Automatic annotation (TrEMBL):
Coiled-coil ranges from the UniProt annotation: none
This protein's name: Methyltransferase
Active site: H271
Record domain O-methyltransferase dimerisation: where: 36-108
Phylogenetic classification of the source organism: Bacteria, Bacillati, Actinomycetota, Actinomycetes, Kitasatosporales
Keyword hit for S-adenosyl-L-methionine: yes
Example GO molecular function: protein dimerization activity
SUPFAM superfamilies associated with the record: S-adenosyl-L-methionine-dependent methyltransferases, Winged helix' DNA-binding domain
Keywords (A to Z) from UniProt: Methyltransferase, S-adenosyl-L-methionine, Transferase
Pfam families xrefs: Dimerisation, Methyltransf_2
Transferase as UniProt keyword: yes
Protein's GO biological process: methylation
Domain of life: Bacteria
Residues covered by the O-methyltransferase C-terminal domain: 135-343
Amino acid sequence: MSDPTAAVTAREAVPAVPLDLVTPDGPVPPRLKLMLLANGQRFTAVVHTLADLGVADALAAGPRPVREIAEAVGCDATQLYRVLRFAVLVGLFREVEQEVFALTELAEGLRRDVPDSVRDAVLLDGSEKFNRAFTGLGHSVRTGRPGFDHVHGRSFWQDLEADEEAARVFDAAMTGISRRLGAVYLARHDFGRPERIADVGGGRGYFLASLLQRYPDARGVLFDRPQVAATAEALLKERGVDDRVEVVGGDFFTDALPTGCDTYVLKTVLHDWPDDAAGRILRRVREAIGDSGARLLILEQVVAPMNAWDPAKLLDLDMMVVMGGRERNLTEWRRLLAGAGFRLTHEPDAGDWTVLECVPEY
């Protein structure tokens, strides 16, 4: 039997969640905080609406009266003022004088023109389909199946095939994530001296292009859904690597993966899928590697243990409800990899985005 004193100590040792709200008079009282948490859809709607309107872009040059902002973004000034007044409560924009608003550091992330913009990800996370999917959280918990499927009558991936606008929003968000995380991965991991890199599920190729820019003698193969692969050429050309990339459209469950590469990359792919499907993807990569001695680099998160603060524990709910996938801790990663014929070459860091370097077991 566990020691109840230890349990109490562990609870008391849990660090304050970084999302605590503080007023000029001190922390928000517990019951009000609980009600705010229960009404989080307000925050989602406000952030999504301001991102969609482009309010941060309208303030890039400095503070402006709300009527000027409204005219610039095409909305009603009175209603916009009410939304901005709410946004100020959580540090998103600042009212510098009566009805005159300015950017905050938090709001900077909603600008289109900053390299670490999260606007596209906000538009995806706050979209009507994502919001409705979370009404199926209880279904996911009870059945183990995605709430998205239950609410919308088809899977997330089927929806992307059928809804061109949803696919555009998703692919834009994924490119934005590649832009932000790509620099993190390149700074934290020694990718060696790759000669031919296969980026499996690599979207429009932003991260592959970053690798090829770092390694000018290397060549690449970009593999993703046909409708995504068809849009990759412009980005690869813009980044000056189109002459070194072979673009292949296909399904990594049914179509042959590229062979003859010394480095295979799966970046934020496996967390989209439950263990059985993720294992099938890994086995397809293992088949493509054969006995060539190529390595596999998985660019994802390793969930931190117990009470440690870790954004992966938030993202894990998206995976559960929307896609049916999951974030994994180190034990889960080792089990998944072993089942597909791989082993880790090192002990990856937990609680952050990391690179799991793997080699085949022979």
